[in-house]
Amino acid sequence: MAVGTTVRRGAGLLASLVRIVGMLIVAVLVIHIVLTLLDANPANGFTIFISDLAEYFNLGLGNLFLPAEPKLAVTLNYGTAAIIWGIITAVVTRLIRRIG
Question: Membrane-crossing residues (predicted)?
Answer without folding.
Answer: 12-35, 76-96
